[in-house]
């Protein structure tokens, strides 16, 4: 029986390994982590992450050929294939701070593998890492190998949170990068056989190590660039009276462009897009390509611009002040069907409104009060962020922020409602009831284009929808981002 050990039981390690275990009953999979609370949660009824379909997948294999453990040494020791799916955040200090990937966790993992391995291993990079990380990891492994043979592969993960199980069941492609030596090719084949249990052969792509590493960064940069492109157009739509949904539809009908990832919004979030682009920018700068670096940097600049534009639209529409006004925030996760709040635009919007002294009441179906408080008190790394979007001190957060358990209580007595996550349940809210409970004039600022602005205007709301023709109320109100 092939034995797999995965270091890192997070958003990637957990679901990916659960699906491998489900699809490969002849493979034993053990997911290990340094955080025992996370492992305990994976072994409990309440999994540590919310992901549609994940519960069923885990329940079917857990205890059969899927295990979660903190005994890292034992399971690395026994494994034939070691996946490394640890976090690779942006560096906050030192060389490359605010841009470069922090590979501390990765290096620790590699040293640990070298330390405890007693038999040959295939080490698989699952985390998103800078190009040439495999080479660095290989050096650590080889220089500490005690005669053991380590083969390294790059197998970046393309799942999207919220649809992770669907993406893993039916991936557009699985990418495996390896050395172009006979031994390297044999190693690629071994991993290919694992995925071939359920992924059609023509969707398993093999490349050299560096191409695989760079493809992941490039794919995320392209995806984020589409969002920033449509968001840039949304600002122009508001200025001219065009409707961004109509423009995006017409543009996306071009077969060369395609319709996906063209929804205008308050901005992208999540743990990957910004971090991976910053990393790409850093790699370009290090390789003497400042023009290329600036091109990708602008994707993030537009994203920051979109968030501050949204905040400024809220404030300017409400007579240029939100001080002491209750603003309901519907949604805090960075997108629907996940409880993940890493880099969510809601944090920046909330900080912007708090900076203008608003009282913010937040409702999100999957994000806990503790998590919201932690996020708002946290110091984000400081790169090209407008100075007025500064994080609040924990005390200020407590005073100005409340968390509700449903949308109706969150909006009660509010002056304005900001929709920041596209949860399906927000589409079917009773807005007449919400309107009746609010202060007048009542405002809705839809950062995800989930409501029908005309219908809400008929109820009596003043409505702002990103990239849609402006409500007469806002037409003469200039917004400086
Ligand atoms: P995460 O933060 O949810 O999970 C990482 C886990 O690794 C944590 O539980 C941490 O305790 C553990 N860990 C750190 N050092 C360890 C060590 N030495 N031994 C054992 N466990 C260790 O991170 P997430 O979201 O799963 O991301 C992991 C990697 O996958 C990142 O490089 C990310 O860029 C990439 N990725 C993430 C995607 C996502 O949607 N979240 C999608 C595709 C790639």
Automatic annotation (TrEMBL):
The keyword Oxidoreductase applies. Transmembrane segments: none annotated. Its EC number is 1.1.1.22. InterPro entries: 6-PGluconate_DH-like_C_sf, NAD(P)-bd_dom_sf, UDP-Glc/GDP-Man, UDP-Glc/GDP-Man_DH_C, UDP-Glc/GDP-Man_DH_C_sf, UDP-Glc/GDP-Man_DH_dimer, UDP-Glc/GDP-Man_DH_N, UDPglc_DH_euk. One of its GO terms (biological process) is UDP-glucuronate biosynthetic process. Keywords: NAD, Oxidoreductase. This is UDP-glucose 6-dehydrogenase. The lineage of its organism: Eukaryota, Viridiplantae, Streptophyta, Embryophyta, Tracheophyta.
């Amino acid at each position: 029986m092939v034995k797999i050990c995965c270091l890192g039981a997070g958003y990637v390690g957990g679901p990916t390994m659960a699906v491998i275990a489900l699809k490969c009953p002849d493979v034993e999979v053990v997911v290990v982590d340094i955080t025992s609370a996370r492992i305990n949660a994976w072994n409990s009824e309440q999994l540590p992450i919310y992901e549609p379909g994940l519960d069923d997948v885990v329940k079917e294999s857990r205890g059969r050929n899927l295990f979660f453990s903190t005994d890292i040494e034992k399971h690395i020791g026994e494994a034939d294939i070691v996946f490394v799916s640890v976090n690779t955040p942006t560096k906050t200090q030192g060389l490359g701070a605010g841009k470069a990937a922090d590979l501390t966790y990765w290096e620790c993992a590699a040293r640990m593998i070298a330390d405890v391995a007693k038999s040959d291993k295939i080490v698989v990079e699952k985390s998103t890492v800078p190009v040439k990380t495999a080479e660095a990891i290989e050096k650590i492994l080889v220089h500490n190998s005690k005669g053991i043979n380590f083969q390294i592969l790059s197998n970046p993960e393309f799942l999207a949170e919220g649809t992770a199980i669907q993406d893993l069941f039916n991936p557009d492609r699985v990418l495996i990068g390896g050395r172009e030596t006979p031994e390297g090719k044999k190693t690629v084949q071994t991993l290919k056989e694992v995925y071939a249990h359920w992924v059609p052969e023509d969707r398993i792509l093999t490349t050299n190590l560096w191409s695989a590493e760079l493809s992941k960064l490039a794919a995320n940069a392209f995806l984020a660039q589409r969002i920033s492109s449509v968001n840039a157009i949304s600002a122009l739509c508001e200025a001219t009276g065009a409707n961004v949904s109509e423009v995006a539809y017409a543009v996306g009908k071009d077969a060369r462009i395609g319709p996906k990832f063209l929804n205008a919004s308050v901005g992208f979030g999540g743990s990957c897009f910004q971090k991976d682009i910053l990393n790409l920018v850093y790699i370009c700068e290090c390789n003497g390509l400042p023009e290329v670096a600036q091109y990708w940097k602008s994707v993030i600049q537009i994203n920051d611009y979109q968030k501050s534009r949204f905040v400024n639209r809220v404030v300017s529409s409400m007579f240029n002040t939100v001080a002491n006004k209750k603003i309901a925030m519907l949604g805090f996760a960075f997108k629907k069907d996940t409880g993940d709040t890493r880099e969510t635009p809601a944090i920046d919007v909330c900080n912007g409104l708090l900076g203008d002294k608003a009282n913010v009441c937040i409702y999100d179906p999957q994000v806990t009060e503790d998590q919201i408080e932690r996020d708002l008190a946290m110091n984000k790394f400081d790169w090209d962020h407008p100075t007025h979007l500064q994080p609040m001190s924990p005390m200020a957060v407590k005073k100005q922020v409340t968390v509700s358990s449903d949308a109706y209580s969150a909006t009660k007595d509010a002056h304005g409602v900001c929709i920041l996550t596209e949860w399906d349940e927000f589409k079917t809210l009773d807005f007449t009831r919400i309107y009746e409970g609010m202060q007048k004039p009542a405002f809705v600022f839809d950062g995800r284009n989930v409501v029908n602005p005309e219908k809400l205007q008929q109820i009596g709301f003043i409505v702002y929808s990103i990239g849609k023709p402006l409500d007469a109320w806002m037409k003469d109100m200039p917004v400086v981002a």
